[in-house]
Predict the 3D structure of the following.
Amino acid sequence: MRFGVLGPVTAWDGSGGVIDVKGPRHRAVLARLIVARRRVVPVTRLAGDLWEGEPPPGAVGALRTFVAALRRALEPERPPRARSQLLVTEGPGYALRPAPDAVDAWRFERAVADAAALPPRQALERLEEALSWWRGPAYADFAGQGWADAERSRLAELRLHAVERRAEARLALRPAGEAVPDLQAHVAEHPWREDGWRLLALALYRAGRQGDALAVLRRARGLLAEHLGVDPGPRLRRLESDILHHAPHLDPVSGTAGSVWAQAATAYDRSVPAGARARLESAVTLLRELAVTGGAGLEAARRHRVAAIAAAEELGEAELTARVIGSYDVPAIWTRSDDPEQAAQVVAAAERTLAALPPDAPDAVRARLLATIALESRGTNAARAGAAAREAEEIARRLDDPALLAFALNGAFMQSFSRAGLAGRRDGIGARLVALSARHGLDTFEVLGHLIRLQARCALADFAAADRHAAAAERLAERHERPLVSVFTGWYRALRLDATGRMPPDEAGAGGVAPAAGEVEAAYRRAAARLDGAGMPGLERGLLPLALLCARVRRGLPPSTGHADWGPYEPWVRPLLLLAEGRRDEAAAALAGVPEPPPDLLMEAMWCLVARAAVAVGDREAMRRARAALEPAAGELAGAGSGLLTLGPVSAHLAALAAALGDAAAT
C-alpha cells in the first residue's frame, strides 16, 4: 500500500493499481490524516477542518461513514469486525499508520536529507530520483484548504531547495553550460530565491560567460530592491566580488588539471593551422572522449562526428576520411541506434571510403571501416554488416592489434542477433573483450565486455554472475569517470528484482518474498529516471512502458491501456493492448500484419508478446511463426538478455504455444 501527495492525493494497492477512495470528502479525510504524520486527529478537529469552520449537524456521523468506506477501500481483504491496522481508531479520533516509506512526501524528505551528506555524483542521482516522484503541486486537490496550506508550502519550499541542490551537484560534475537553461527557467519562475540567482551566475561564469554572470547578478539586485526593498544577501555580494577578481575557488577545475587543459588547448590552437588535416583527426579523438560522458556530450559528439566526416570527404583524401570515420571507436552496448538516419549516413560514407581506398592502404584502416559498418548497422538486418564484422575481426587478429580487435568485437556483438537464443555466443564475445581489454588497458571496452556478459548471464538466468559483472562495470566506471554505466546497472537492478524478487546481495531489501507489482513498477520508474538527460533516445523511447507491460503480463495482470509512448515497440505491443480493451477483431487484424522483430536484444521479448496475443485470438499462423522463432531460445529468459526487463522463461511461452496448437511433442 502506497500513498501519493506530491500531486493529486492518490492511493495505490500492492500491485500498483489506483485505489478508488470514493468522493472528495473521503480523499480529504485521507489527506488530512497523512498531513498528521501518523498522529491521532480528534474527530472534532477533523470535522472542523473538513467543513472549514462550524461543522453542520451530523458531521461526526458523516465522518464515521467516510472512515468506514476508506477502510473498505484500503483494506479490502480485512475480515469483518477485525481491527484495522492502517486507519486506526485511537482515543478521540483517527490516525493513518502507513509504513515510513509508504508516503511519497516522507520518502522525498528523507532523500533530500540523505543527499546533503553524499558526494556530488551520488547526491545528483538521489535528488533526480526524488524529484521524479512529483506529479504536480503537493496536495493538489486541496489548494486553499487551511489544514493543507502549511504542508503544501513546506513541501513546495523543500522541492525548490532540492532543485537548487541538484543544480549544485550538476555544476560539480558536468560542464557548467548544461546547467544554465534549467537555472534560467528556475529563476524566471522563482525570482525571489537568491540561491537560484547565485547558481545561475556561477554556472555562466564557469561556462566562460563572465559578462552574462555579472548581468544576472545585477538583475537579481534590481529585482530584490524594486519589489522587496532589500539588498542581495552576503552570498550574492561575495560571488559578485569573486567574479570581478577571478577568484580561483570559483572554478572546480582551476587547479592543475584545468590549467593543463586550457594551456594545451591554447597551444594547439596557436600551433596547428586552422585548415590542417590534423585538426580533423584530433577533433574526432576529442569527440570520442566526449561521447562517453553521456548527456549533452554524447549528443554533441554524434552531431559533430557527421560534420567531421563530411569535412574529410570534401578534402577528397580517402585515407584521411577512413581515419576520421574509423577512429570514432566508441563502445556501444544498445542494439538500437539513437539516430538511425545518422547511422545510415555514417555507413554510406564508410562504404564510399572503402571503395575509394588505394590498394596499398593499411589493413588496419580498412578494418576500422568494416567494424564501423558492422556497428552502425545494428538492428537493421543488413546482410553486408555480418560479413563486415567477421572480416574486421579476422584482420585485427592477423595484425595482433588489441584496440582494433576490441572495436571489431563490438561490431561482432552488434551482429550476433541473426536468430533468437544466442546469449551464449554473446557471453563469449564479452569474455574475450574483458580479457583483452584488461591486458591492454582498454578501460571503455573492458566496461563494455562486463555489460555484455551481464546481459548474457541475465538471459541464461545466472544472476549471481550478472551481479559480479555489474559490480565490475561500476568499479571501472567510477575509476574512469564513465557515468552512462550506471544507467545500465540501475536498470539491471530493477530487472533482477522483477525476475528474482531480490536485489543484488550487497544492497538492502534482499528477501525471499516475491515483490508486488507495485514495488517492481517503482523500481523500473527509478531506473527510467536515470535516462533523463542521458542522451540515448534509442534506448529511452518506449522502454519504461514496455518494462511495465512485461512485468504485468508476466504476473497474469491485464496490461494498462492508458496512453503511453510505445516508441519502436508499438507494432508488437498493439495486439495485446487491443485485447485488453475488448477489441478482439482489431487485435486479430493487427496481429496478422505484425512484422518480424528487428534483430536486437529485445527480439525474444517481442516474439513472446506476439505469441501471447496469438494464443488469445487463436491465430495459428502467428503461433507457428512465434514458436519457430523462439525454439532456439528455449533455455533463456525472454527479454532478460537486454539487462533491462523480462517476460520470464521462453520455455513457458513455448509450452503455451504447444498447448494452443495441440502439439504435445513441442512441449
Summary: The chain has four domains: 1-173, 174-271, 323-512, 522-666. The domain at 323-512 is CATH 1.25.40 (Serine Threonine Protein Phosphatase 5, Tetratricopeptide repeat). Confidence is low (pLDDT under 50) at residues 508-512. The beta strands are 2-4, 10-12, 41-42, 87-90, 93-96.
